[in-house]
Design goal:
With 203 residues, the protein is α/β, with parallel strands linked by helices. The protein is built from nine helices and five strands; from the N terminus they run αβαβαααβαβααβα. The longest helix is centred in the N-terminal third of the chain and has 21 residues. The N and C termini lie far apart (49 Å).
Length: 203
């Protein structure tokens, strides 16, 4: 019976992997302020894919905003919930553009899971671009809410350096400093095809 169970799991994995050939998940990662949510909406609209924002999924499941989750439950609770929701989304059987949280790839073994189950894209920006974007939305960002404006550049530079070791494992890197949305989306699509993936749903 052990052999039968082994064979069952082999075929279950085989068909699961086969399905992944026909289902595409594009996972966008990058630091806070790199434009993941906006680029995700634009890309999913162009492809006709479902658009999922991981932070929004977590927020709606718990009935709390991200700052409220950090404040009331703590970061450890948030990271565990983030991992759980990430696993669920990456097992979806439909074409998806997934916008990850800035820290999602950096905890547990999430970067490996993301790479196994999706086409991962690192949206890379320099510190000055990120700081300019983040100054407008500090209140919505728990990790920088308490950082003084004049110290934000140093904070982002240090934090980005720590996280880059995870971001750099993405299957492709697209620069977003110039914030040319059409160019960014086209670069992502060209990069995906260069990696050998076929996109059928381009609108």
């Amino acid at each position: 019976s052990g052999a039968k169970i082994g064979i069952f799991f082999y075929f279950q994995n085989f068909f699961s992997n086969l399905l992944k050939i026909f289902v595409m998940i594009i996972a966008l990662m990058g630091y806070m302020g790199s434009g993941k949510s906006i680029i995700s909406k634009e890309l999913s609209s162009k492809l006709g894919f479902k658009n999922i924002d991981l932070d929004n999924e977590i927020s709606s499941e718990l009935g709390l905003s991200i700052p409220e989750i950090f404040q009331k439950k703590g970061e450890l609770f948030f990271r565990k919930k983030e991992k759980e929701v990430l696993e669920r989304v990456l097992n979806t059987q439909e074409d998806v553009v997934l916008s990850l949280g800035g820290g999602t790839p950096c905890y547990y073994d999430s970067i490996d899971t993301i790479n196994e189950r999706s086409v991962s894209v690192y949206l890379a920006a320099n510190v000055s671009t990120l700081v300019k974007n983040l100054l407008q939305e500090k209140g919505e960002r728990p990790l920088i809410a308490g950082v003084k404006d004049e110290e934000l550049s140093n904070f982002v530079g240090q934090h980005l350096m720590e996280r880059n070791r995870y971001y750099s494992k993405a299957k492709m890197v697209v620069m977003v400093n110039d914030w040319d949305l059409d160019r960014i989306v086209n670069d992502i699509l060209a990069g995906i095809e260069k990696l050998g993936y076929k996109i059928n749903n381009q609108g």
